[in-house]
Specification:
By secondary structure, the chain is mainly alpha-helical. It has five helices and no strands.
């Protein structure tokens, strides 16, 4: 019998546990993504961790992105990983379009920061931070599309 994670409420835990792997520190993005999204979005081609080719920093950024996403979801999620995105439905806004607006805002910010030599008035929002936000929003757009197309 499949259970739900007591931390993030992911419903289809494929193993007997109180928590999904993504709710533990030190998880790997690939294994977490495979467990959480292979059924929902058809990402069945994600393979278990294997030696990686490509720049090591790319994979470090993926792990960092997953960690940031998890922390932000705890702040915004209210028990539903997509809750703050789906909250626009009563306003007549498609959640996918809402994410695209957020991506557009981040793109505008990057352009402004680049014109100012990479530094804006808000010290904690660098070009790198904004690019990481965009990467997360792009992935969330894929998830939201998959979730809303299931219904």
């Amino acid at each position: 019998m499949k259970k739900s994670c007591s931390t993030c409420n992911y419903i289809n835990l494929p193993f007997e546990s109180r928590h999904c792997e993504g709710c533990y520190n030190g998880f790997t993005f690939t294994n977490w993504a495979k467990r959480h999204y292979s059924e929902a979005s058809g990402l069945n081609n994600i393979q278990p961790e294997a030696p990686r080719s490509g720049h090591p920093m790319f994979y470090e950024l993926l792990d960092r992105l997953a960690e940031i996403h998890s922390k932000k979801n705890q702040d915004y999620g209210n028990g539903n990983p997509l809750g703050n995105f789906m909250g626009v439905l009563p306003l007549g806004v498609d959640p996918f379009m809402g994410v695209l607006v957020r991506l557009s805002d981040k793109w505008s910010r990057i352009c402004t920061l680049a014109q100012k030599g990479g530094q804006g008035q808000v010290k904690d929002e660098s070009i790198t931070d904004t690019l990481m936000d965009m990467a997360a929003y792009a992935l969330l757009a894929i998830v939201i599309r998959a979730e809303t197309q299931k219904k």
